[in-house]
Amino acid sequence: MLRFSSFLLISGLMLVLACALVKPGAHLAEVGEEIRTPMNDMIAAYNRRDLEAFISFMAPDAIIQLEASPAITGTATIRAMIEKTFESPFKEMLWESQTIVLATKCKLAYVISAFKIVFEGRDGRMEVPGKSTIIWRKTDGHWKAAVWDFSVD
């Protein structure tokens, strides 16, 4: 986990150093929406358990890093992991993007979010809170999740 956290930190620093970050101004809300829309659409696909729609938001070489687990790399491996996740009794994932930073020249962005995975069962409702960082990459005019790091609180 520490190694991957270091990777995220170094990636973020490279993003800041290599690219011109969007300056605060009138167009910042529009730029945020450029990332927020695919983010929300991806989470909606997850909540409806629409595997194909969810995978369409992932870069072919995407990496998902779950807490205390080896990295899951590439859409074929991610697809298999998400299929198993869809078999679990979760009801929905509630998502709140807290920070969105877009590097305009490099076509990279990162989103820091808080989430809750909601389960409903015999014992009632249970919410599992956590945090996430997603690095997005714009390829052929479309934003794709390139790196996704999860941890539960």
Notable characteristics:
alpha+beta, globular, six-stranded mixed beta sheet, 4 helices
SSE succession: HHHEEHEEEE
| Euclidean distance between termini CA atoms | 14 Å
Q: Biggest sheet: strands, sense, closure?
A: 6 strands, mixed
- Runs with pLDDT <50, length 5+? 6-10, 12-28
Query: What structural category arises from helix and sheet content?
Result: alpha+beta
Mean pLDDT: 84
Over the alpha carbons, how many angstroms does the gyration radius reach?
A: 16 Å
- Beta-strand share of residues: 35-45%
Shape, per Cα inertia axes: globular
Q: Please list the strands of the largest sheet in the order they lie side by side.
A: 2-1-6-5-4-3
Describe this entry's structure for a reader.
The relative contact order is 0.19. A hairpin with a 2-residue loop joins strand 4 and strand 5. This protein is of the alpha+beta class and 153 residues long. The chain is 35% helix and 42% strand. The chain has a 6-stranded mixed beta sheet with strand order 2-1-6-5-4-3.
Quick structural gist:
This protein is of the alpha+beta class and 153 residues long. It has helices at 2-18, 28-47, 51-55, 75-86, and strands spanning 58-65, 72-73, 90-103, 108-121, 124-139, 142-152.
Topology:
Blueprint: H1 2-18, H2 28-47, H3 51-55, E1 58-65, E2 72-73, H4 75-86, E3 90-103, E4 108-121, E5 124-139, E6 142-152
Parallel strand pairs: 1-6
Antiparallel strand pairs: 1-2, 3-4, 4-5, 5-6
